[in-house]
């Protein structure tokens, strides 16, 4: 078997391919992660079967029951929890935005969006319940 055709990838690959950083002044607990990053093994299996049947790029995959068994039945994978970072530096959002092309430029055919103020950013930052 060609390893590249085996799906899903090993759960250990998650930590190397998915990085999560919450930028919030509030404490983040595991129950907050569960609502956002919960994995259901059966849904992964169903999604892979659908892709195999309906997407030519996935038609040759081999669905690995061993790899599926590495995934939780209904929980956040340990690899995700162990690599999730939390930062209270809300100002980092503003600093990061400074490196992007200005959003307030209006030329024919270009997308326009308004810049967010600091207070608007603080309102959209993640706040756990």
From TrEMBL:
The record ties this protein, via InterPro entries, to: DUF6570
Top-level taxon of origin: Eukaryota
- Any Pfam family from its record, for instance, is DUF6570
Domain DUF6570: from-to ranges? 6-68
Q: Can you name this protein?
A: DUF6570 domain-containing protein
This chain's source organism reads Crepidotus variabilis
Lineage in the entry?
Eukaryota, Fungi, Dikarya, Basidiomycota, Agaricomycotina
């Amino acid at each position: 078997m060609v390893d590249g055709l085996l799906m899903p990838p090993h759960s250990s690959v998650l930590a190397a391919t998915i990085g999560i950083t919450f930028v919030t002044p509030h404490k983040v607990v595991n129950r907050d992660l569960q609502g956002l990053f919960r994995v259901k093994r059966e849904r992964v299996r169903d999604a892979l079967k659908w892709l195999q049947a309906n997407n030519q790029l996935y038609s040759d995959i081999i669905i690995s029951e061993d790899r599926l068994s590495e995934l939780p039945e209904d929980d956040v994978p340990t690899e995700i929890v162990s690599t999730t970072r939390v930062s209270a530096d809300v100002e980092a959002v503003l600093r990061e935005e400074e490196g992007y092309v200005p959003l307030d430029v209006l030329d024919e055919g270009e997308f326009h969006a308004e810049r967010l103020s600091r207070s608007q950013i603080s309102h959209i930052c993640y706040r756990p319940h």
